[in-house]
Design brief:
about 100 residues, mainly beta, three-stranded mixed sheet
Amino acid sequence: MSTLLELPSVTECTITDCGYHHEDGCHAGAVTIAGAVGDASCATFVPLDAKGGLAKVLAHVGACQRTDCAFNTELECSAPSIRVGAGRDDASHADCLTFTAR
């Protein structure tokens, strides 16, 4: 089991209309990567004008539900870090850009 400091960090998030995005980063305590096959979505994405999260903390990956990702080990991300950005089909949708199919 990993500690919070050992979990991969979210080093980049370009989805500025998310309530957890401010000061050029994601400030949720942890994000969950979810989605169906073909879509590694950030399930923590909240499209609100209100800003929330932890002011001095940048997010880590708390859980990954994409068992078909090469970085998924027992539902946790084993990538060194991840990037979150616009989905391929919808620019307002947040996806894990680090997702790599097995």
